[in-house]
Amino acid sequence: MSQSHRIAGGQIDRSTTLRFSFDGASYAGHPGDTLASALLANGVRLMGRSFKYHRPRGPLSAGSEEPNALVHLRSGARQEPNTRATVAELFDGLTATSQNAWPSLRFDAMAINDRLSSFFTAGFYYKTFMWPAAFWEKVYEPIIRRAAGLGALTREDDPDSYDKAFAHCDLLVIGAGPAGLMAALTAGRAGVRVILADEDFRMGGRLNAEVLTIGGQAGGDWAAGVVAELASLPNVRLMARTTVVGAFDAGIYAAVERVSDHLPVPLPGKPRQTLWRIYSKRAIVAAGATERPIAFENNDRPGIMLAGALRAYANRWGVAVGDRVAIFTNNDDGLRSAADLTAKGVQVVAVIDSRTDGPLLPGIRHLRGAQVIDSTGRLGLSGITVRLATGQTETIACTALGVSGGWNPNINIHSHHRARPEWRADIAAFVPGQGGPAGLIAAGAAAGHLSTYGALAGGHVQALAVLESLGITATAGDLPKAEDAPLNLSPLWHVPHGKGRAWIDQQNDVTVKDVKLAQQENFTSVEHLKRYTTLGMATDQGKTGNVIGIAVMAELTGRAIPETGTTIYRPPYTPVAMGALAGRSRGKEFKPFRLTPSHKWASEQGAIFVEVGNWLRTQWVPKPGETTWRESVDREVLATRRSVGICDVTTLGKIDIQGTDAAAFLDKVYCNTFSTLAVGKCRYGLMLREDGMVFDDGTTARLAEHEYVMTTTTANAVTVFRHLEYCRQVLWPDMDVQIISTTEAWAQYSVAGPNARKLLEKVVDQDISDAAFPYMGAGSVTLGGLRGRLFRISFSGELAYEVAVPARYGDALMRRLMAAGAEFDAVVYGTEALGVMRIEKGHVAGGELNGQSSALNMGLGKMVSKKKDSIGMVLSQREGMTRADGYRLVGVKPADPKGVLQAGSHFLEVGAPVELASDGGWLTSKVYSPHLGCDIALGYLKAGDQKIGRRMRAVNFLTGTDTLVDIVSPHFFDPDGERFRG
Amino acid sequence: MADAWKSLTALGHDTARTVTVGPYRITERDDVALASVALRRGQDQAFAAAAAKAGVPLPPPLQSASGTPYGAFWVTPDMWFVTAPFASHEDIVAHLKPVFGAAASITEQTDAWVCFDLSGPALTAWMERLCNVDLAVVPDGYATRTMMDHLGVYLLKQGADAVRLFGPRSSAQSLLHALEVAAASLA
To answer: Which residue does chain B place closest to A591, by CA atoms?
Structure first.
């Protein structure tokens, strides 16, 4: 077949031929075609199978409202499901395949569903598949999902990239039809910043699909002229192929720009799509209107489409969908299709006008007061049956039928903030109501002005109103001449005839019968109607079907349509690829990395990194010959305790706190006291939340009378800083306190072990003997002349220091420490070894700082000073928080040294039944201690301080373990602290 | 200071480099010393007088000011980031503390940030892919805090085709990657 249905005219470039394939067959088309127009030009009407009944379907529309012609576009990893053929721009080499059909589109085995339709009525899945319940998820759902569905995912990674961007304007105009163009022109000429976004690749909207003239020019030519003028204005941004998909708060709109969808593959570096966030002061929605069909028996055959689409294919794309065409209308606009097609030389066999007084077109057979009641043709329309005004029926052979039941203004965006639309009886349609998004107004057909002149005037007037609201005076201009005919619609929603099925929502296979069933079963609210029948769901959001469904329900219940109501549209207006929502945040770039200043050095050592927040921290550093992580970690622990180890602690949060009230401020945010801390010393601090639970911990050093530096856990660095800002700005705004994060400014290393001082003495210029720099000393030092900071603190329980230099010298300091430590066999240790040593010392960390534990739970109850007020102090003294049988931190060892402990295990008394009532607490963190030669752990145990020495069970259902354990002091190693004071 | 100490730039190089993507240039600047200078309560007059005497500009909100040796941009109520040449002011706090005395809280910020100078045509088109700053409209000297690919950055407009960014140093590579990808989509 070579474009057998192509006729003269249209906005396609016939000088270039594009090759494409559908279901393996090759076809030709031209630039300017959509996949649907090109297939129709080649005589292909059958493009898909329906959702539930697998009925053969062709395009109903020529735009984004399309419910039927959904295909898999492209192949391989780029294959995209549920692509509307009516808006897929044709490119050379395009491949598309049909979906929801097996083994082929023409012979679909699942079409048996159509024969069994009486079993698949509305709500069938609520009534069947009920027993047994165990089958719901594992048997019934997979079967239903396989039988009923749309496109399939490839399960391959999308090879293309997506982008996000921000745009700003005074006025966003949504839609570039006559109203949108006029609005953009009016505002653009007045000099305000305008963004004009349109989902089509060619701006002009319906003007491209009509032969109507504007000011004596063809509508399409007028549109092209306006677009050219807008393009010349520096204050106007034209965004074609851009769908505004949602209205959000404060004039913010989301829009998807299909940057590369019209190309076989994106150009190098270019995204496939860009998700724009458009910040506007005002917006005009000029999204036009969508034609709606009339429901009659078998009204879903390929070849039956909206009358406006039928003439759009002829006028814009030079395609005659059929050689014998009939029109079924209840309004004057439908007659345009008959006139346009006749002018194009297409045979119009009849106009079936449900009105008795519709105008007559010369040379065309009119059947007034008649209705189409049925159609024939298995895989495509071959004829229709018409009930004449006399009551007699007549069959008419035809291969295309254009149906017009009127036009629905596109109120979607307007109702994104739950604005209820209003009913306008003269056009029998909903128009935007009150309470839409602030700053958004509708113009043109979207506001219910369905004539060309009405659209032009609406766009102009609304733009003037916007300008006035922005404080700009602009005078009304002369509008070009254009048609201004009324629709003359006489409502007809469905043709009452026979017992067959008449489709309302073609995408979801919802028929008039389904609505009747819903009504019979008392699902009469529109919201219930939607859920019970699936009317208006899925990719098209019921753009062609919703109003008919509501009208049929109104008819059945005897209510008026506005009383029956309408469901609310939600974003997105048309489907959005997940990739566009993700933008650049995917794979390795899902979130930013944070690297410490000595990351390069650690990489050179072959360090294994672990993600902690966004940081990459050294977890351990394997040495040659080590085959398991445990070997490396054991070595790091033993070497540190034996001589000296170095650990990168840059990631701990550091907050500079200054001001004359800094000391008083710290006394309020920490539960223990810092105002008494001497300059040049540091102290462990515990921070509570208002509810008395522990929030974070760390050491804070006093560098000067009014200057402290606080450290936080790595995980809470940001939340603690935010908390302090809140305290400073909101709770105590009169305090003289200034804070700023210095986490990244300093590279900081822990040097721990019996030889830590000896090592540092080679690096630090000052005297750091125990006398000169005692335990918990802190202050500025120099290292070979370089400014630095030194803190004598220990998390490992060893004689330990933390030494810091400006981040740019972190790499050099690490190398210098390792060189200085060579004579002591210094090792680098990572977070795993750190974890082993802190548990050996009984220090709390992530597993214990779980947001549900108090200082008392942690064995730190005495740290909560009662002599002063601090955040959380009062509530930490609540009765339930201080009970003697509450959780207490304990140490845990397996009764058998070879026993294995599991974090998350629950403690039970030996002999107690394994049930919730016996639960005594849980094991929070566990490691293997190379010093003790067995697993050791920390845990929260009820009245744990009274149970030291008791033997209990640690039961873990997840790992299926049940281990006898001994409850011991959490201080496994050097309980008297002789080492770190050394 | 301490010649024997070898430094690495935020991107991990020995010296700062320029990355070019089509007409767009991203230059790492490791020669800018930075300190936060915050007004202490009730010290307004002494603070302003000290700044004026030492030539430390104190621009109003959303603005930056340049000068020799000190430049500055506003970051939050009563706080500025003050810049100076790294070569002469590496220990910038040591320079500023005598100026402000007890009137200000001053904290070294030099190595907390990576500094990128961006240049090229149509910087607006580049920046709108990264942040919600209406670069076409804001004046030269504009300074703000914004987000780029989840990272909080300070953005200073230094001319129609020049922008300076201060981003978190530890994420310098991630920020550079975002800048490169956005530039590549335009180049």
So the answer is: B150
